[in-house]
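Page 37, continued from 36.
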C-alpha cells in the first residue's frame, strides 16, 4: 500500500529534515499527536525544536481554565515548596539519546508493548519487540465483528498497566519489577516533582493516559488511550517517547486523571449496526454493570434517532467503559533499592 504523504506543520523549523513515519498506529491510521504527524527528527536541531515546542506547550497549557487552579495552588505553597518545584528536573536520557534509542510503535494497539521495550532498555535490559509483544499479550480490535462485540473489543484493545507489569517481568526473565500508582480520582501530588524524584532514584515511569481529554478546541479527538515512557521531567513539562514529545504538565496531569471510559466515533458505531447483533446485548456485556450505568444501548439508539431526523445536532461519540486505569507505572531492577522503595511506597493520597 502506498504511504500517505504528510506535509510538515507551519511551525516546523526551516532547514530541519522532515521525515514522517509511515508505521501505522493502534487506530489503523498513521501515528499522530493531536492531529500532527508523529515524525522522526534528525539529530541536528532536535534540542532547538524541543525548546521551541516546550515554550509552545507551556503557553498553551496555561491558557486553559485550569491555569487559575494552578496559580492558586502556587499561591498557597510555602517558599520551600516553590523552590522544590522550580528545581525539580530529571532525565533518563538526553533528548538526543531519546531520539536515537526510542522504539517506534511495534504494532497495532501495541503502545504498551512498545513502552515495555523502552523500559527494559532504560534499565539496561535489551529484549526484542517480538518478545515484549508475546509477554504483554496485546489485545486487538475486532474490526469485522457485530457492534456489541466490536465495542467490547474497543473497550479492552491494547493492554492495561497490569499487562505491562507482567510483560516487563516475563520479558526480562524476572529482572524488572513494576508498580502502578493511580492518579484518578485526583491525587494530592505535584506531578513533575514527583516524577523527577523517582527518576533521580533510578525508576523508569510509564504513563497510562486518556488521550481523549484535554483536547484543544478545533482539534480531532484521538480514538484511544496511550501508554508512553516518560524519559524526563522539568518544571512545567514532561518528556515522552512514542512519539518523541514534550507536553505541558497541566495537560499530562489531565490525561493521567481520567475515569475509565472511552469515546467511540459515531461512524465506527453506525457502520456496524447492519452486521448483526442485538442492541440489548450492549447492556449485558460480560456482566459488567458499567455498560448499563453508561446506558450504552441508549446512546446508540439516540444516534439511530438522529439519523432519522434531517436536521438537528449529531452525537459525535458513544461513551463506553474502558479496561484501563489512568496513572503512572514505576519500574526498577528487581532486588534494587529503588525497586524496594517503589513496592513499599504508600498510595498517593486523594486530593
Amino acid at each position: 500500500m502506498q504511504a500517505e504523504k504528510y506535509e510538515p506543520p507551519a511551525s516546523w523549523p526551516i532547514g530541519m529534515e522532515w521525515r514522517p513515519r509511515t508505521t501505522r498506529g493502534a487506530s489503523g491510521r498513521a501515528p499522530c499527536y493531536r492531529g500532527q504527524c508523529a515524525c522522526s527528527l534528525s539529530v541536528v536541531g532536535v534540542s532547538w525544536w524541543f525548546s521551541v515546542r516546550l515554550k509552545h506547550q507551556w503557553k498553551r497549557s496555561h491558557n486553559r481554565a485550569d491555569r487559575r487552579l494552578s496559580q492558586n495552588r502556587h499561591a498557597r505553597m510555602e517558599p520551600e515548596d516553590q523552590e522544590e518545584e522550580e528545581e525539580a528536573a530529571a532525565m533518563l536520557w538526553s533528548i538526543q539519546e531519546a531520539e536515537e534509542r526510542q522504539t517506534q510503535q511495534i504494532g497495532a494497539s501495541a503502545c504498551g508493548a512498545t513502552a515495555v521495550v523502552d523500559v527494559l532498555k532504560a534499565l539496561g535490559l535489551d529484549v526484542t519487540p517480538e518478545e515484549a509483544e508475546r509477554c504483554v499479550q496485546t489485545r486487538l480490535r475486532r474490526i469485522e465483528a457485530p457492534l456489541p462485540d466490536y465495542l467490547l473489543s474497543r473497550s479492552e484493545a491494547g493492554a492495561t498497566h497490569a499487562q505491562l507489569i507482567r510483560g516487563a517481568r516475563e520479558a526480562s526473565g524476572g529482572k524488572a519489577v513494576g508498580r502502578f500508582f493511580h492518579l484518578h480520582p485526583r491525587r494530592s501530588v505535584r506531578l513533575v516533582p514527583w516524577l523527577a524524584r523517582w527518576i533521580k532514584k533510578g525508576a523508569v515511569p510509564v504513563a497510562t493516559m486518556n488521550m481523549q481529554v484535554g483536547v484543544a478546541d478545533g482539534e480531532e479527538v484521538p480514538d484511544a488511550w496511550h501508554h508512553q515512557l516518560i524519559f524526563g521531567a522539568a518544571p512545567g513539562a514532561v518528556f515522552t517517547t512514542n512519539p518523541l514529545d514534550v507536553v505541558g504538565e497541566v495537560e499530562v496531569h489531565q490525561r493521567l486523571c481520567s475515569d475509565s471510559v472511552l469515546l467511540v466515533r459515531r461512524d465506527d458505531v453506525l457502520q456496524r449496526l447492519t452486521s448483526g447483533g442485538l442492541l440489548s446485548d450492549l447492556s449485558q456485556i460480560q456482566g459488567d454493570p458499567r455498560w448499563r450505568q453508561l446506558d450504552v444501548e441508549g446512546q446508540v439508539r439516540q444516534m439511530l434517532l438522529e439519523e432519522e431526523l434531517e436536521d438537528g445536532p449529531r452525537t459525535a461519540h458513544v461513551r463506553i467503559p474502558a479496561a484501563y486505569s489512568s496513572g503512572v507505572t514505576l519500574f526498577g531492577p528487581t532486588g534494587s533499592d529503588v525497586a524496594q522503595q517503589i513496592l513499599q511506597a504508600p498510595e498517593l493520597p486523594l486530593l
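DSSP finds 14 helices and 13 strands in the chain. Flag for discussion at group meeting. Residues 1-46, 61-77 have pLDDT under 50 and may be disordered.
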